[in-house]
Design the sequence.
C-alpha cells in the first residue's frame, strides 16, 4: 500500500514554469468570461422586465373584458392574474381601455419597457 505513495526513481512533480503557465491561462479565461457574464445578467434583467410588461398588459385585457368602461390600477392587475417580479417596478400610467399605458422598469437592468393600448411594447434606456 505504501508503494503507491512513494515516488519512483527519476519521477518529478510539476515545475514552477508549468504551474505559472496554467495560472496565466486560467487568468486569461477569467478575464474573458467576467464581462460576458455581466452582459448576460443585464439581458436577463431586461428580459424579466419585458415579460412583466407583457403579463401586465394581458391582465389589463382580462380586466377590460369584464369592465370595458373601467379604469385599471396596479391593484386591479394583481387581482386579474398579474404577478409582479420582485426586481421589476410596474406602473400604470393611464388605465383606460382606449389609452392604456404601462411601464416595467428592472431594478438592475438598463432598459425601461412601455406598453400602449394596442399591446405594442417599446423599450428605452432608463
Sequence:
Amino acid at each position: 500500500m505504501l508503494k503507491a505513495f512513494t515516488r519512483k526513481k527519476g519521477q518529478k512533480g510539476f515545475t514552477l514554469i508549468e504551474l505559472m503557465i496554467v495560472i496565466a491561462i486560467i487568468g486569461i479565461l477569467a478575464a474573458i468570461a467576467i464581462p460576458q457574464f455581466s452582459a448576460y445578467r443585464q439581458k436577463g434583467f431586461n428580459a424579466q422586465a419585458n415579460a412583466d410588461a407583457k403579463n401586465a398588459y394581458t391582465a389589463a385585457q382580462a380586466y377590460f373584458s369584464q369592465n370595458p368602461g373601467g379604469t385599471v390600477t396596479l391593484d386591479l392587475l394583481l387581482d386579474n392574474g398579474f404577478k409582479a417580479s420582485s426586481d421589476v417596478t410596474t406602473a400604470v400610467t393611464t388605465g383606460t381601455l382606449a389609452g392604456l399605458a404601462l411601464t416595467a422598469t428592472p431594478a438592475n437592468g438598463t432598459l425601461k419597457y412601455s406598453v400602449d393600448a394596442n399591446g405594442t411594447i417599446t423599450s428605452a434606456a432608463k
